[in-house]
C-alpha cells in the first residue's frame, strides 16, 4: 500500500489525501493506481489556501464571468 498524508484545508473545511510515497504495485502500474488500503502517514492543516477543488471551481467561475463580459 502507498503512503498518504491528509491535509485539512481550514479556509474551506475540506480534507484532501495526497500520496507521498508509491508502493511497489503503484510504481509498476502505468497509471500509478493502487488498490491497497490507504496508509495515512501524517495529517496536517493548511491555513493559507483552500483545497484544489475549491480553487479550481473558483477559477472556472472567474473564467466564465470574464467570458460573459467579453460578449
Ligand atoms: Zn499502494
Ligand atoms: Zn475545499
Secondary structure elements and their pairing?
Blueprint lengths: L2 E7 L4 E8 L2 H5 L10 E8 L5 H19 L1
Parallel strand pairs: 1-3
Antiparallel strand pairs: 1-2
The protein binds zinc ion (2 copies).
The shape, in one word, is flat
Q: What is the typical, i.e. mean, pLDDT? A: 87
Q: Give the SSE string.
A: EEHEH
Total count of helical runs of at least 4 residues: 2
Annotation keywords:
single chain; 71 residues; alpha+beta; flat; 3-stranded mixed beta sheet
Overview of this protein structure:
There is one protein chain. Helices cover 34% and strands 32% of the residues. By secondary structure, the chain is an alpha+beta fold. The protein has one domain (3-70). A hairpin with a 4-residue loop joins strand 1 (3-9) and strand 2 (14-21). The relative contact order is 0.26. The structure holds zinc ion (2 copies). Residues 9, 12, 14, 50-51, 53-54 line the site of one zinc ion (ZN).
Question: What is this structure, in a nutshell?
Answer:
The protein is α+β, with helices and mostly antiparallel strands and 71 residues long.
Amino acid at each position: 500500500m502507498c503512503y498518504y498524508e491528509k491535509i485539512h484545508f481550514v479556509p474551506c473545511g475540506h480534507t484532501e489525501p495526497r500520496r507521498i510515497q508509491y508502493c511497489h504495485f503503484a510504481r509498476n502500474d502505468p497509471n500509478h493506481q493502487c488498490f491497497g488500503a490507504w496508509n495515512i502517514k501524517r495529517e496536517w492543516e493548511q491555513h493559507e489556501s483552500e483545497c484544489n477543488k475549491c480553487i479550481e471551481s473558483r477559477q472556472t467561475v472567474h473564467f466564465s464571468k470574464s467570458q460573459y463580459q467579453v460578449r
